[in-house]
Amino acid sequence: MTDSALPSKPAARRPGDAPADPAPGAATGAGGDAARAPRRIQSVERALRLLEILASARETLPLGRIAERAGLNPSTCHHLIRTLVDCGYVLNAGHNRGYMLSSRLQELTETGARRADISDFARADLAALSGRLGLGVQLAEMQGTLLVTRFKVNVANTHVIEADEVVKMRAAHATATGKAILAWLPEAQTLKIISEHGLTRFTPRTITSLADLTEELRHVRRNRYAVDNEELKEGVVCYGAALRNEKGAVIASISASMPAALATDTFRETVAREIVACARGLSDRLRLGGF
């Protein structure tokens, strides 16, 4: 038998190598492929375990004790904890004082509950507003640096071809809902949003300089409403106003969209007045209800 005809030996596995795939047709256990456990990411499991350990602790824990409870070596534990600290989920209580959970998880839980409820909370009011104006009405909020539409209603089925929602998410500077929120955010947060997404030009009317946007937001604060005057999409005009919670913080905004052909001075005044009144009414209920 020649060398080429000899069966080849499997390559030796080194420590840490992934298990070799079974040969075609080889059995994979009693249940075959269906019996395989779903793939899990070990680093994620370990990070979650660290959060659970810190959540159950009655006091700050030093790194060594966290590593011991998690069954990890100190170096691995340190890298995981450092990442959780950098992401804001864990706090370093100071030199030799150990680590503790931050309020980040609670904030996420509260935000999730609010997102699940605010559309239902405002639904009837926005449907009524759409009916009174004969226009499409939207509710949006900032999720991080993205402007996300949470609810839409168009009782009168007014035909308006609006911009794509994916485009709108990164165009707070060119939308009525976006500007209604930006006007009341801390300056650092507004600059972060602009820095991440820029001031993209969508139409000849789009605001593309920070100085002009700053002046525009000043007008929003003074008038209590924002205007998208064909700035995101030609032929579409929107008016928007902010919603505030019981602490007075802006948590969302509403807007009404109309074809530019309908945007006479008289109708613009009507829409602005109705949008502000609806936003004020919702905000009053939000404050009273502690939403």
Helices and strands in order:
Elements: H1 42-56, H2 63-70, H3 74-86, E1 90-92, E2 99-101, H4 104-133, E3 136-143, E4 146-153, H5 165-169, H6 176-182, H7 187-197, H8 210-223, E5 226-229, E6 236-244, E7 250-259, H9 265-289
Antiparallel strand pairs: 1-2, 3-4, 3-7, 5-6, 6-7
Task: Summarize the model shown.
By secondary structure, this protein is an alpha+beta fold.
Q: Can you describe this structure?
A:
By secondary structure, this protein is an alpha+beta fold. The protein has 2 domains: 61 residues, Orthogonal Bundle (Arc Repressor Mutant, subunit A), CATH 1.10.10; 180 residues, Beta-Lactamase (2-Layer Sandwich). The strands form 2 sheets. It has a 5-stranded antiparallel beta sheet, sandwiched between helices. Strand 3 and strand 4 form a beta hairpin. Helix 1 crosses helix 3. The N terminus is likely disordered.
